[in-house]
Amino acid sequence: MSREQPPRAVLDSDIIFSRVLHELMGRIAQRLRLIDLVWSAELLDEAKLALIERKGLGDDVARRWVDYLPRSFPAGRVDIAEALASGDLGSMTRDPGDHHVCALAIASGADYLLTHDRGYLRDALQIRGVAVTSPDLFLVDAFREHANAIIDVLELQASTWAGGRPIEELLDALDRAGASEFARVARGLLDV
């Protein structure tokens, strides 16, 4: 009897842009198998460009940052060329720059598109089986079902983050990255 596969998820480039948030999502995928992360070369290129232009990172630093997904999830690579050519992507987002993200979600058979971006047309993606949700909402729901396991992941991330920091600082960083409700709920359980 084989174990059921976890739901597939796309991290939008705005999530990859936050190192602390995308690493947490990666740890939840690797250690807890609550999601299976998928990615495309186009997604990594967009994230790398945003890191260079908006965070002022050098090319090598930005490349190492976005390479977290291919290093950690090599089987998650999806070729989106056929989905990009379908021409139906405009019905899924208000932003033509996000067509490649919709193509990735469709081509990979993703269950989730985790994003802060409000330009995605949720109903159109939902028809194709893709739930558009914020990482904050996803993390709160996961925390309700797997609190102890997620606390273990948070403690591990805090111990390795920037040479080791208190979990309170990690929760502060997650709050700033847009996972404020998750950070609040975790603080309440941890009493920090």
In brief, what are we looking at here?
The protein is of the alpha/beta class and 192 residues long. The protein folds into two domains: 126 residues, Rossmann fold, CATH 3.40.50; 54 residues, no CATH class. It is built from eleven helices and four strands; from the N terminus they run E-H-H-E-H-H-H-H-H-E-H-E-H-H-H.
Structure write-up:
With 192 residues, the chain is of the alpha/beta class. It has two domains: 126 residues, 3-Layer(aba) Sandwich (Rossmann fold), CATH 3.40.50.1010; 54 residues, no CATH class. The chain has a four-stranded parallel sheet with strand order 2-1-3-4, with helices on both faces. Strand 3, helix 8 and strand 4 form a beta-alpha-beta unit. Helix 9 crosses helix 11 and helix 10 runs antiparallel to helix 11. It starts with 7 loop residues before the first strand and ends with a helix.
Average pLDDT works out at 94
CATH architecture of the largest domain: 3-Layer(aba) Sandwich
CATH fold assignment of the largest domain? Rossmann fold
User: CA-to-CA gap between the ends?
Assistant: 42 Å
Total number of β-strand segments? 4
What structural class should be given to the helix and strand makeup? alpha/beta
CATH H-level superfamily of the largest domain: 5'-nuclease
Radius of gyration of CA atoms, rounded to a whole number = 16 Å
What is the approximate shape? Answer: globular
Uncertain runs are: none
The percentage helix is 55-70%
> What's the number of helices?
11
Number of structural domains: 2
Q: Strands of the biggest beta sheet: in what spatial order?
A: 2-1-3-4
User: What series of H and E elements makes up the topology?
Assistant: EHHEHHHHHEHEHHH
